[in-house]
Amino acid sequence: MYMQLGGKTVHITNRMKDGTIRESMDGYVVPVNETTLPAYHLIAQACIEKMEEEAKKKEK
Description:
The chain has 1 helix and 4 strands; from the N terminus they run ββββα. By secondary structure, it is of the alpha+beta class.
C-alpha cells in the first residue's frame, strides 16, 4: 500500500507473524492484548489530536 505522509510517498508492508504479506489490513481485526495495547493507545491518541486540530480549525 502506498500513502502520502508528510509530503512524501511511503510504501507500507503489512507482514503478518506467520510471514504472509497483506496488501491491506482492511477487514483484519488486531486482537487487543498485552502486546497490542500500546499500539491501540498510540492510535487513539493520534485520533484525538487530529479531532482536536480539526475542531480548532472550525472555530476560526
